[in-house]
């Protein structure tokens, strides 16, 4: 019995020794050194992953923000495109990366708020495996028709759509995109049955301009050039408030459908587990550099937002709930 008690005492003493050694490792000098590494962030190039091809809205925003962050920190912020699977490939790559602030993503509404419902076999959860840093820009969708269509206002569009119930069609940039789901939401409100024709790439706009497609929702940056050239007629924007990029175009809400909101947005996220000090530093830095991007963003169709990581987190959750209902109502799904 005495031997057993002695053995237990020695085990406890050994455990205490390990604990004391561990505490010694966390000496004030060590803590200060660790904090210094965070204060010095970034000390090497930072990768910003874009889950779509170069030249798109996400890519343009990422490169604009990355350039100014490079200038601010005197350290490279390099954009790397990893397209595929509706944005899932690139964002999963980021979620699986080291949570040290050196791999980030600038992503849009689809991969973050829509895909968790749209994709039935998603291999990661963007809502829990990516940490919001900052909501960079709100990008409304705009309802477009060809000049060949005898429609010049939203009121005339409603009358046209109801008269052509079951025969009217619309294009989108793909199943489950905000372009597609915005049309689903609007047709549900109007009680109109419309045929969806999904596209990949610029052909959707080409067929709309040619009059082979009746209407389409598209992000303002992707069509602002065609609108200014008179190739497409904008009827309404999908945001609650008018876009600063198209101030003369009314909202759906203004036309008797309060609460209608179905635009796109773009924000920065990091792997979950990234030190909060780095999240805060990135958030503050992007808020600062966005001041220099405001005029450019607005001219290209994006409304700058900014604000805190907590704001972005709550915003994403609200978007997820909204789009979950729309996706389930539409019956859209991807494997």
UniProtKB/TrEMBL annotation:
The UniProt keywords, alphabetically, are: Receptor
Q: Which SUPFAM superfamilies match?
A: Periplasmic binding protein-like II
Origin: domain of life? Bacteria
Keyword Ribonucleoprotein attached: no
Q: Name one Pfam family in it.
A: TctC
> Which Gene3D superfamilies does the record match to this protein?
Bordetella uptake gene, domain 1, Periplasmic binding protein-like II
Asked if the keyword Phosphoprotein belongs to this entry, the reply reads: no
Q: Which InterPro entries match?
A: BUG, Bug_dom1
**Which family does this protein fall into?**
Belongs to the UPF0065 (bug) family.
Name of this protein: Tripartite-type tricarboxylate transporter receptor subunit TctC
């Amino acid at each position: 019995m005495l031997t057993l008690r002695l053995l237990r005492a020695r085990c406890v003493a050994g455990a205490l020794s390990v604990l004391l050694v561990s505490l010694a490792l966390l000496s004030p000098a060590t803590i200060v050194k660790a904090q210094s590494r965070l204060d010095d962030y970034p000390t090497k190039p930072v990768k910003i992953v874009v889950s779509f091809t170069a030249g798109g809205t996400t890519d343009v925003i990422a490169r604009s923000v990355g350039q100014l962050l490079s200038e601010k920190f005197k350290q490279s912020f390099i954009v790397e495109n990893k397209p595929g699977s509706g944005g899932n490939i690139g964002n999963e790559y980021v979620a699986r990366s080291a949570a040290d602030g050196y791999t980030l993503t600038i992503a849009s509404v689809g991969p973050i708020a829509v895909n968790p419902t749209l994709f039935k076999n998603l291999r990661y959860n963007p809502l829990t495996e990516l940490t919001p840093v900052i909501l960079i820009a709100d990008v409304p969708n705009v309802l477009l028709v060809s000049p060949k269509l005898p429609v010049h206002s939203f009121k005339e569009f409603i009358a046209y759509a109801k008269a052509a119930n079951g025969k009217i069609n619309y294009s989108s940039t793909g199943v489950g995109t905000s372009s597609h789901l915005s049309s689903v939401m609007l047709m549900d409100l109007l009680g109109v049955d419309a045929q969806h024709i999904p596209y990949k790439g610029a052909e959707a706009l080409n067929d709309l301009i040619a009059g082979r497609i009746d209407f389409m929702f598209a992000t303002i940056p992707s069509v602002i050039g065609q609108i200014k050239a008179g190739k497409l007629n904008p009827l309404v924007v999908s945001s609650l408030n008018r876009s600063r990029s198209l101030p003369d175009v009314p909202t759906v809400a203004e036309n008797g459908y309060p609460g209608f909101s179905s635009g796109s947005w773009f924000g920065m996220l990091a792997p979950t587990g990234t030190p909060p000090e780095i999240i805060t530093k990135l958030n503050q830095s992007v808020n600062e550099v966005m001041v220099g991007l405001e005029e450019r963003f607005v001219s290209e169709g994006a409304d700058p937002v900014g604000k805190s990581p907590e704001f972005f987190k709550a915003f994403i959750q609200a978007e997820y709930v909204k789009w979950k209902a729309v996706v389930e109502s539409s019956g859209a799904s991807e494997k």
